[in-house]
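Exercise 7. Given the encoded structure of a 415-residue chain, write a plausible sequence.
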């Protein structure tokens, strides 16, 4: 158990590498003929799962100090793929693994076993793939080859499957068209397209990203990629500075395609002192006021924003609750129970969470096995009467293994 006591934050921390970018780079390097290099690779469990899957599909993986070499362009092998607990890994690699002709089974562990994956079945079948799940759950059994075609998919639950299709279809003969309904997390689709351009592949999209045209066959070219800092993990550090001190987080790009860079605008709206430089971002505590934010395109911001709202004067509203049910936990329930236990006045109605600001009492909570819930509970402990004891904190290794170490190095009183 980690005990995060009331603490004043003051320090400089380097943001962890983006696992979202890392997984996409790994997939494209797998499909590129030759030797690609990934600098500053992410080392969290999800990133390691992506490397493991790429290796199982035929890539040569060569780890080095500070970078990874991926030897790609080899025939896609049929095999048993272990995606760990990574939702991005399972949804993105489903169409990529279907580029091969051998039977492949994609499975995972822990909370991923209860997360819905049935959205991949119909579109992949329409593209020539024999694909089935266990009643919408893992494992996914499929056999390609994937073929070009026209399909319609629903992007409300996740944009990750769309990213997998965008990565895989350029390698097919002929032209493909994808119509997307209810797309959320649009910045992550833009991230996929930008990285594809870096690997020499182009995909045409409508202005509002509801229609994609993919010409084939194209080919990915091996290249070098520098992994930028992860705004999703850094958001917790930035909120820590805003609620109780001052923090500088390095390796963050303001022009990033990551949806969670929106945390900067929210912190400014809430009254925190925000300073952006070429090498990082500095956030300093100030009198904080309530805020309103629609997190539909950035659902991973819900946990740190609930923690932020507890330190703001007045009533804050965060919309987009519908995106929270199928995460590592049902985050709507997890956030309500954890923060209520810590003394927050929190209400859930329709598609929004309302939080009345005020000093938390603190207490003992469980992470629900969800990395972002564990990190948010730690934030709550910083600005509370008696701190927060977080059981099940080890799940942070999914996205940010060094979180508690970094928070402690910046002044957090953590035992």
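Solution.
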């Amino acid at each position: 158990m980690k005990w995060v006591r009331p603490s004043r934050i003051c320090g400089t921390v380097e943001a962890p590498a983006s696992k979202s970018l890392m997984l996409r780079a790994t997939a494209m390097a797998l499909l590129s003929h030759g030797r690609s290099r990934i600098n500053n690779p992410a080392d969290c469990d999800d990133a390691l799962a992506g490397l493991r899957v790429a290796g199982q599909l035929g890539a040569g993986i060569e780890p080095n100090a500070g970078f990874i070499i991926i030897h790609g362009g080899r025939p896609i092998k049929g095999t048993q793929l272990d995606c760990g607990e990574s939702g991005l890994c399972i949804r993105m690699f489903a169409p990529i693994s279907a580029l091969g002709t051998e039977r492949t089974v994609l499975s995972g562990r822990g909370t991923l076993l209860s997360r819905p994956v049935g959205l991949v079945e119909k579109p992949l079948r329409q593209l020539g793939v024999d694909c089935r799940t266990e009643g919408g759950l893992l494992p996914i059994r499929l056999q390609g080859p994937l073929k070009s075609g026209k399909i319609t998919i629903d992007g409300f639950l996740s944009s990750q499957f769309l990213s997998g299709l965008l990565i895989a279809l350029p390698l097919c003969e002929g032209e493909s068209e994808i119509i997307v309904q209810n797309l959320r997390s649009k910045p992550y689709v833009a991230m996929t397209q930008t990285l594809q351009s870096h690997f020499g592949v182009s995909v045409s999209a409508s202005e509002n990203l509801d229609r994609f045209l993919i010409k084939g066959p194209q080919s990915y070219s091996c290249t070098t990629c520098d992994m930028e800092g992860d705004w999703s993990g850094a958001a917790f550090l930035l909120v820590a500075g805003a609620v109780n001190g001052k923090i500088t987080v390095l390796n963050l790009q303001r022009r990033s395609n990551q949806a969670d860079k929106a945390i900067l605008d929210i912190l400014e709206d809430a009254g925190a002192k925000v300073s952006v430089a070429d090498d990082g971002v500095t956030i300093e505590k100030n009198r904080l006021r309530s805020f309103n934010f629609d997190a539909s395109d950035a659902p991973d911001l819900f946990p740190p924003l609930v923690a932020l709202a507890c330190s703001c004067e007045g009533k804050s509203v965060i919309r987009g609750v519908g995106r929270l049910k199928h995460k590592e936990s049902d985050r709507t329930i997890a956030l309500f129970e954890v923060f209520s236990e810590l003394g927050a006045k929190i209400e859930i109605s329709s598609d929004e969470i309302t939080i009345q600001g005020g000093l938390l009492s603190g207490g003992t909570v469980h992470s629900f096995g969800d990395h972002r819930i564990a990190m948010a509970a730690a934030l709550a402990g910083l600005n509370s009467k008696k701190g927060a004891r977080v059981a099940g904190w080890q799940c942070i290794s999914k996205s940010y293994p060094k979180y508690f170490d970094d928070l402690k190095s910046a002044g957090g009183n953590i035992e």
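Remark. The radius of gyration is 21 Å. Students should compare their own answers with the one above.
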